[in-house]
Design brief:
The complex is a heterodimer of chains A (90) and B (150). Chain A is built from three helices and four strands; from the N terminus they run E-H-E-E-H-E-H. Chain A is of the alpha+beta class and 90 residues long. Chain A has one domain: Histidine-containing Protein, Chain: A. A four-stranded antiparallel beta sheet of chain A has the order 1-4-2-3, covered by helices on one side. In chain A, strand 2 and strand 3 form a beta hairpin. In chain A, helix 1 packs antiparallel against helix 3. Chain B is of the alpha/beta class and 150 residues long. Chain B has one domain: Mannitol-specific EII, Chain A, CATH 3.40.930.10. Chain B contains six helices and six strands. In chain B, helix 2 packs antiparallel against helix 3. The longest helix of chain B has 14 residues. In chain B, 46% of the residues are buried. The chains are: A alpha+beta (90), B alpha/beta (150). The interface between A and B is medium-sized, with 19 and 20 residues. Chain B: It is found in: Cytoplasm. Chain B: InterPro entries: PTrfase/Anion_transptr, PTS_EIIA_type-2_dom, PTS_IIA_fruc, PTS_SugarTrans_NitroReg. Chain B: It holds the Pfam family PTS_EIIA_2.
Chain lengths: 90, 150
């Protein structure tokens, strides 16, 4: 199991489109993916679009992505890259 | 965020008979115009279409959440339609859509109002039983009860 922290960078926050991109990317890997809001006990399934949308993360929110499984390293690399790119937004 | 306060009686269309995704969007926009939440129909419709062009708002589970931020919107509002017949929305899970929540936010809205509305809707939709009841809803009163219940 590996964990990695990141920050939401896009202006409009973690709305439908970023949640879609995140779940689409997570679904490409067999590993279990979860997202935790730093400083809270709120954790959701990283492959659930509704789960991610309920977090309603705005710009600057800090999260921890956890990946657990055979392809955990590749999965977390792809998800961190996606988050750090601002989900293709700015 | 109270969803019910954003959802005007005139913006609840149950059932809505429509032949296409575009027709559903136009009817919902008309309902938002009728309720006084939107003053520039074409501007808001343009914002909705621009958003759909970047990726479908069909989130799966037979629900779509088209949304747009536009100077044509007077005040934040929500509209809901339960479609008479399921319609293809290019959803993530490939399933046609039966329930549609439309979010309207003014261009000048402070920061993350759309996000707050989205959170409120998602927190309800994540509940299996809520979704099941939502997609079976037959009148506005039942919808209001449902939105207030959870």
């Amino acid at each position: 199991m590996i964990k990695h922290e990141t920050t939401i960078r896009n202006e409009s926050g973690f709305h439908i489109r970023p949640a879609q991109l995140f779940t689409e990317t997570a679904a490409r890997y067999a590993s279990n993916i979860s997202v935790t809001v730093n400083g809270t006990s709120t954790t959701v399934d990283g492959k659930s679009i509704l789960g991610l949308m309920t977090l309603g993360l705005s710009k600057g929110a800090e999260i921890t992505i956890t990946s657990d499984g055979a392809d955990e390293a590749e999965a977390i690399r792809a998800l961190i890259e996606l988050a750090e790119s601002g989900f293709g937004e700015n | 965020m109270n969803i019910k306060e954003l959802l005007h009686e005139q913006s609840i269309l149950i059932p809505l008979a429509a032949a296409s995704k575009n027709e559903v969007m136009e009817k919902l926009v008309d309902a938002l115009v009728a309720s006084g939440a939107v003053h520039d129909r074409e501007a808001y419709l343009g914002a909705l279409h621009n958003r759909e062009a970047t990726g479908s708002t069909g989130i799966g589970f037979r629900v779509a959440i088209p949304h747009g931020k536009s100077s044509g919107v007077t005040k934040p509002a929500l509209a809901f339609a339960k479609l008479a017949e399921p319609i293809d929305w290019d959803s993530l899970d490939g399933q046609p859509v039966t329930g549609v929540f439309m979010i309207a936010v003014p261009e000048a809205a402070a920061g993350n109002e759309h996000l707050q509305i989205l959170i409120a809707i998602s927190r309800k939709l994540i509940d299996d039983e809520f979704r099941e009841r939502l997609l079976a809803v037959e009148d506005a009163a039942t919808l209001n009860d449902l939105l207030g219940a959870i």
